[in-house]
Amino acid sequence: MPTIELLAPVGHHEGLLAAVKNGADAIYVGGAAFGARKEAAFSHEELVEVIKYSHLHNVKVYVTVNTTIFDQELEALKEYIHFLYLNDVDAIIVQDLGVAHLVKQLYPDFELHFSTQMTLHNTKGVEFAKHFGADRVVVARENTLEEIKAMKEAVDIDLEVFVHGALCVCYSGQCLMSSMIGARSGNRGACAQTCRLPYELVDLSTGETLDSSVGDFLLSPKDLKTIDEIGALIDAGVTSFKIEGRLKKPEYVATVVKAYREAIDQYVATRKIKISKQMHEDMDQIFSRGFTKGYLFGERGSSLMSTDRPNHKGILIGEVTHVKGKRATIELKSTLEVGDGLRFVSLNQKDQGLQVQKMFVKGKTVTLAKKGGVELELPFTVTKGMKVYKTTSFSLSKRAAVNEKSIDKINIYGEVSAKNGEPLKIMAWDDDSNLVTVESEECFVEAQTTPLSQSRLKQQLGKTGSTPFSFAYLNITMDEGITLPISVINKIRRELLEELEKRRVKKYADRQKSVVEPILTSYDQQACTPSLMVSVRNIKQLKVTLAQNIKTIYYKDIKTLKRAVDLADEYGATVIPQLPRIMTDEEISYAVYVIESLPIQTIMLGEYGMYEALKNKDYTFLTDFSFNTNNVQSIEAFKSLGISQVTCSYEINQRQMRQLVKNTPLPIEMVVYTRIPMMITKHCPVKLLNQQEFCRMCLSTPFGLRDRKNKVLPLLRTGNCITEIFNSQHLILIEFLSELQQMGIHNFRLEFTNEPDEMIVDAIKVYQQVLETGSLDRGWLESYKNQDDYTKGHYHRGVQ
Fold first, then answer.
1. Given this model, what pLDDT does residue 513 score?
2. In this prediction, what percent of the chain has a pLDDT beyond 70?
3. What is each CA distance from 147 to 120, 235, 248, in whole angstroms?
4. Are 635 and 666 in contact (CB under 8 A)?
5. Taking a C-beta distance cutoff of 8 angstroms, is the pair 750, 578 a contact?
6. Which of 170, 227, 423, 783 could form a disulfide bond with 439, CB atoms 3.0-4.6 angstroms apart?
7. Are residues 415 and 382 in the same domain?
8. Across the chain, which distance is largest between two alpha carbons, in Å?
């Protein structure tokens, strides 16, 4: 059986102690920049101490460098990679392909983990990662056990899987909702968790709001919990078990790491797992939105989503049975203790909460109340029948608390030689084969009065005090009647332990700063005639587009691609397959079959798997916005793969675009009209409310989600029951076409979603007019403004 790794989240020093104490094999942390959790960041100085402490305790350190990067950050990024490499980081976790490309140029031996933010979700995508230089892939949270097993059977690479904690409803790396709503980019570590807000499902054809019997939080998943299924994951080939939670409290880290450590060790030793009821309760109590086994084990709909509450639920502990004034009686189902946190929940009232300071049983003050009635004095009004949840447990927090003194000492072993006329010699080692030998400058002499006894020498050498070590074995070979000053013994002991600590802390002693200058190329940006491309989703939109004399059309529906190619041929136009962002192994195989059967020359890629499947064929490859391309290093990486053109991301602003175009090694295409896709998700809100496994309602009825500000976000089905959630407003950059051309961008795309035919026609005509004459029909633009259906996206404001 391969070595199984338990990977713990660390966002603060206390979390580090909790992870080490409770058995983590590795931790993942973020620095002050380039990490996907800005609020859980360590400074350079703090990070160095985290690395040293972790390595001292034989725990690996993986640092997140898993955000998208802009050009103005590349120099700082390069220095950061130097810093991480020279300070003994075991591996870095990356999202941006350009970062991976840069690391491989600077430090080919630096271990690379491809983040879940890279949206690697099929076997071919994992194969691509290995060929590009990844040592590990963090697979998408949407993958099933069977899909992960297929990945491992096909590709010899480490697979890391999230096994516990918060879930994203969107495929990681593809979410723009927080970015578009508040300029806080999930791709940049600043997600505002807009998915945890309430939404209503709307029938777009009638404007009717559909009733929800399950709650208002239609995009808020439960927390993942797979502890009872660890054996199946190990058997599937998973080698790293990842716990989410760098922003969580240290007690959470301690509780969850301890539980999964026990489960993994049990299965490795006995092929069975038996987790106690108390341990399950502790995990429920420490943090939970309700638990699910997730897509990993086939859960969907209401078993996946926390529709009634987007935050910690706590454990149902009782119900209000009587209220008199400010005093309420609660019938307890389990133990309540002074110091516990409670939440009172009702369908008709706002939730109220407090920490228990005083309680009464049969009129007497108590600190602990068991099953039965208990009275509380409350600073707010409650009503009979309200459910009562324990949100925090005083006793659990106390049990899970960790400090420096609670960390187990590291066992070391020693052989001591104390001979007359010779120096004190000590050889010590640990369980990881670190061996240190030291000897004193002074020599033993015959004692004139009281000789040094062997027991006293052992006592002095065993005083490891505040050091992390403890002698489990110390053998002394000693002549009789000799002595040596105690100060000398203490000095040599300190030198021994300091040297042993250095050996444990410094894992990669031979690392040196790279002097390699990353290779950047350029292409000839001669004046070009601007090109207008159109992206359509189906045959109906294709026919409308062809009638407007558009010669290059991106087409999204693989199932009708042959018909689209034939139809375009009648108009003398070219159809380029625009492949999906999400594709199963079966869908990749089908897409390859269809494409190879047609006279296709150019393909727009939506994810890495299709590139891997087609890379040895004679095709011209373009990349779509889904690759989050923001910097020249990323474009250089794509060029090295044979890509001919990239599409820039929706998160780049005017200033950043100007710098990118100036240095780009490939031509860039820009989407200048669309509804920006805010999310792509395996979860279907329509199916959730309809509560049917195969509802197919989206095929006949258009739906949307209404947010708190009364904006409606259209929903569209793509592929095999994958849902895309679009912005309520259209991105329109028609005012800046001339400016973009002056920068060096000459390829412009109109990407249509759910627009009626006449809107498609009008958009094509007005963009054609501007590109041909430079004249803009302001009335067309004003019509969008008047409907509040118009945004410039991030063109000016950018993202955090």
1. 96
2. 99
3. 12, 13, 30
4. yes
5. no
6. 423
7. no
8. 112
Do 285 and 313 touch, CB atoms closer than 8 A? no
- Count how many Cα atoms sit within 13 Å of the Cα of residue 441 in the half-sphere of its side chain: 4
Separation in Å, CA 591 to CA 126, 240, 558, 583: 18, 32, 6, 9
**Residue 514: inside a domain:** no
- The CATH code of the domain that includes 715 is 3.20.20.70
Given a cut of 90, whether residue 91 has pLDDT beyond it is: yes
pLDDT in tens, 701-751: 899 999 999 999 999 999 888 999 999 999 999 999 999 999 999 999 999
pLDDT tens for each residue of 505-559: 999 999 999 999 888 888 877 767 899 999 999 999 999 999 999 999 999 999 9
Q: Cβ of 784: how many Cβ atoms within 10 Å?
A: 17
Domain termination site, one of 251, 266, 296 = 296
- pLDDT-based confidence at 694, cuts 50/70/90? low
Answer whether residue 301 is part of any domain: no
Q: How many CA atoms lie within 13 A of 426 on its CB side?
A: 30
Residue whose pair of structure tokens reads 């009821």 in the numeric block: 277
Question: CA angle, corner 509, sides to 504 and 514, nearest 5?
Answer: 145
Euclidean distance between CA atoms 674 and 676, whole angstroms = 6
For residue 414, count other CB atoms closer than 10 A to its CB: 21
Pair 196, 311: CB distance under 8 Å = yes
Give the strands of the sheet with 469-478, arranged side by side.
Answer: 435-443, 423-430, 410-418, 469-478
Asked if 723 and 608 sit in the same domain, the reply is yes
| Residue 487 burial by Cβ neighbours in a 10 Å radius (0-12, 13-18, 19+) | exposed
Q: What is the pTM of this model?
A: 0.95
Asked if residue 626 belongs to a domain, the reply is yes
Q: What's the CA gap between 159 and 534, in Å, rounded?
A: 38
* Domain shared by 744 and 660, yes or no: yes
What is the per-residue pLDDT across 137-195, written as a single tens digit (0 to 9) for each? 999 999 999 999 999 999 999 999 999 999 999 999 999 999 999 889 999 988 999 99
Give the whole-angstrom CA distance, residue 10 versus residue 30.
8
**Contact status, residue 549 vs residue 764, Cβ threshold 8 Å:** no
Of the candidates 99, 66, 65, the one whose C-alpha atom is nearest the C-alpha of residue 636 is 99
Say how far apart CA 202 and CA 195 lie, in whole Å.
17
CB 666 within 8 A of CB 521: no
Report the domain count for the chain. Answer: 4
The answer to the question of residue 464 being in a domain is yes
Q: What share of the chain is helix, strand, coil (3-state, %, to 5)?
A: 35, 25, 40
Which of 464, 489, 504 is the C-terminal boundary of a domain? 504
Chain-centroid distance of CA 738 in Å reads 38
Query: Helix (H, G, I), strand (E, B), or coil: what is residue 64?
Result: strand
Instruction: Give the Cα separation of 482 and 451 in Å (integer).
Output: 5
Q: Give the separation between CA 650 and CA 247, rounded to whole angstroms.
A: 27
The reply to whether 249 and 363 lie within a common domain is no
Q: How far is CA 549 from the centre of its chain?
A: 44
pLDDT in tens, 624-666: 999 999 999 999 999 999 999 999 999 999 999 999 999 999 9
Gap between the Cα atoms of 79 and 32, Å rounded? 13
Check whether residue 392 and residue 415 sit in a common domain. no
Domain, as residue range, for 118: 5-188+220-296
Q: Answer yes or no: is pLDDT of 39 > 80.
A: no
Instruction: Specify the amino acid at residue 375.
Output: E
CATH assignment of the domain containing 336: 2.40.30.10
Distance CA 569, CA 249 (A): 61
Same domain, 743 and 692: yes
- Residue pair 279/45 in contact by the 8 Å Cβ criterion: no
49/159 same-domain check: yes
Same-domain status, 439 and 328: no
